[in-house]
Amino acid sequence: MAIRSPLYWDTVNGDVRAMTTAQITSVCQRAVYQYSLNPTVELIYAAGAGSLNSINDTRMQAGTATSNISAYATEANTPDISQVTVTYDNVSMSTNSPISYPTNANISYPVYWDSTAGEIRAMTEQDMIDTFVHETIDMLASGNNEATTTNKGGSYTVSTTNSLAGATLVDVNPIYIDTRADAAAYTAASIPESLDQPTTINSYYLHQWNGDASAGALVPLCIDQTNGVTDLSTPPDIVWDDFLSGFVRTSAETLPGYRIGYQIEANTSANSSMVLCGSAMTDTRLNGTSAAGYNTRLVNVDDYRTQEFPNGVPITINTYGLYVYKF
Fold first, then answer.
1. Which domain holds residue 99?
2. Confidence class of residue 270 from pLDDT cuts 50, 70 and 90?
3. What is the rounded distance in angstroms from the CA atom of residue 171 to the CA atom of residue 251?
């Protein structure tokens, strides 16, 4: 592994200098932006046909009501409350990258000072990967571990709002909705009540982080052989951006250990290879019992009704998340 210190033209001092670690990081931020313009790994809203794991929303519903002409059905003889499960399978992932790393017939990769040989040399393909790609992919796969959102341009996150600063909403439809039985909607005076009366607790939306177009203005020197003349020069932005974009996009799909993937998982916060992206998605429901939800209604002397309603306090059944990982 060889991380190089590319040379650049210092316009302030009028000489050639080696990039600092901070300047290399700035270049990687520019690479993130270039990646955000055409990401290799894309997530879309797939409306029940997702390729990532599904998410279950569970809630309780009332039991079926009873009616008797002479007496109330006992709690034991009144149908119990039951669970409703709704499965959300709405996120699909696809990949699309160049088939090889970019080159330019006339312009080399950035140059650096080889102190052992005592000469200026052009970086190799592996040097480009070691110097720029690894750090850039680390940013893209940082999830909640990276506080600077512009360092994650082109990557994805989940939020309980459909308008998130620094990001673009992927689809107006939520990828998951957590619901619970609306206990206040059930009353004994209305027996027979509709069985399933949910209320929405949270809706979760998929967003893609925006890149920072102003990142990494510094461009390193390259060997330029345009028009048959060999010289050191700062390449045009379009050439440099093509190098950055091509290296990161190709690596994100093909470079072992630096390929980017996403998955929806339950309770995997202890899995160090995966990083949560945005809000965790909780499945909550009421924890009451059938016996506690037993209700009666006397309509008239020959109509005794009973029904069991959802009740109790909210508890978390499961916690899901959109996770990013390198593999």
1. 7-326
2. low
3. 27
